[in-house]
Specification:
Blueprint lengths: L6 H7 L5 E5 L6 H8 L4 E4 L3 H9 L1 H4 L6 E5 L7 H11 L5 E6 L2 H12 L3 E5 L5 H5 L4 H4 L3 H7 L3 H5 L4 H20 L5 H13 L7 H8 L3 H13 L3 E4 L15 E4 L2 H7 L14 H18 L7 E5 L5 E7 L4 E7 L10 H13 L10 E4 L5 E3 L2 E5 L6
Parallel strand pairs: 1-4, 1-5, 2-3, 3-4, 10-11, 11-13
Antiparallel strand pairs: 6-7, 8-9, 9-10, 12-13
Length: about 400
């Protein structure tokens, strides 16, 4: 069993909130984590049809009758339960505590906004971060190269059971993604949706042109929007938005598309092994995706939401990631080469000049950092050069 960094936040929140919601991709380890963090909670798994039928027939008896500590898995399987949760938390005694898990982000957020606003705290559990993998006492894992990490991704079962990534991801798509597709939208042609998934993978790290995606897939623009929503709701893909603070009036407004797990991304791109990543034409975009998801995991594992963006103007200047810290923007550049060249710092230097003009004189302008695929720490004109192995630490 893996020690998940989110566990300490969950245990801290137990005394402050009546309801804790843990959301994330299917097979990311939500149930395992919650059962470990809350061993005295009675578990109700709504994924089980028989259990779900019993709960629907008698929610008070089947849930409240089990005691004041309840863990409900896959709560999105019965959306009507949220109305009961609202009443119970408003009328309950001080010792009632309920933990819910779910894999449908949009449905959960909609129901929480409608019924549980102010009564619940939401945590995201994403696939294993490399910091969590570093804690595993397994020499085969510690010996992984960067290509291994990107190709396998972070789903726990792949490491715990030493499964073949290609076989597992094929089953994952069929068993989970396609089922979510049927539940969330009226998709009749799953082969066409598979084509759509592949086309999305081929656009990783690029500006998202929905019209072009619709044309290449042979579907309508509204269908593209609906299917992208499915990918986001199922924690398969996400978009990184451009930052629009008034540094320039001619900024790019399109978002960039990324995947929550690079192992799934590599599978959708047709890669058969980690070695193929060394010279793959999308290696740079896959590495960029991997770094950004590690940055998102770092914040999610601390129980925080990320405030990450990218920045690009129409003259070609860009920064891969901006971390909006309120007063300042911390820039990060990502390069997949194992060697650092002076031109790699041009975007950081340009953005620093722009940001310095907007900051008060008593606030130091961030220098930024560059993350690369090499193995040693370096610096260039006060800019930290961080090797891939230290991302998230």
């Amino acid at each position: 069993m893996y020690n998940r960094l989110l566990e300490s936040s969950l245990q801290k929140w137990q005394s402050k909130y009546r309801i804790i919601a843990v959301v994330g991709p299917r097979q990311s380890g939500k149930s395992t984590l919650c059962r470990k963090a809350f061993p005295d909670y009675h578990v109700i798994n709504l994924e089980n049809p028989q259990t779900r039928a019993l709960v629907q027939a008698d929610p008070i008896g089947e849930i409240l009758g089990r005691g004041p500590r309840i863990l409900i898995d896959e709560v999105q399987r019965w959306p009507d339960l949220f109305s009961y949760l609202q009443v119970w938390t408003d009328e309950a005694k001080n010792d009632l505590r309920i933990v819910i898990t779910g894999s449908n982000h949009f449905l959960l957020m909609e129901k929480i906004t409608q019924s549980l606003a102010g009564r619940v705290i939401i945590a995201e559990l994403l696939p294993l971060s490399q910091v969590e993998l570093a804690q595993v006492d397994d020499q085969s894992v510690s010996a992984h190269s960067l290509e291994d990490r990107m190709f396998i991704g972070g789903y726990p079962r792949l490491y715990h059971e030493h499964l073949d990534p290609s076989e597992w991801f094929e089953q994952y798509i069929q068993a989970y993604v396609e089922r979510d597709v049927r539940e969330l939208t009226q998709v009749r042609d799953l082969d066409l949706f598979q084509k759509f998934l592949g086309l999305c993978a081929g656009r990783v790290g690029a500006l998202l042109n929905e019209a072009s995606l619709a044309n290449d897939c042979g579907i309508t623009h509204p269908t593209v929007k609906a299917w992208l929503s499915v990918l986001k709701a199922s924690f398969v893909a996400f978009t990184l938005k451009p930052h629009h603070r008034n540094f320039s009036k001619r900024l790019i407004k399109q978002a960039k598309l990324y995947f929550y797990d690079t192992g799934l991304l590599c599978h959708l791109l047709g890669l058969q092994n980690a070695q193929q990543l060394s010279n793959h034409p999308l290696r740079g975009a896959i590495f960029e995706n991997w770094v950004i998801t590690e940055m998102i995991k770092e914040r999610a594992n601390a129980g925080k939401r990320h405030h990450l963006y990218f920045w690009r103007d129409q003259t070609g200047h860009e920064v891969d990631v901006l971390d909006d810290q309120g007063t300042i923007l911390e820039p990060t550049e990502i390069k997949s080469s194992r060697t650092v060249f002076p031109e790699h710092f041009e975007g950081l230097a340009f953005f620093r000049k722009i940001q310095a003009k907007s900051l008060p004189k008593d606030i130091a302008c961030p220098v930024g950092r560059l993350i690369y695929a090499g193995d040693t720490h370096q610096s260039f004109k006060d800019i930290s050069v961080v090797p891939w192995g230290d991302v998230g630490k």
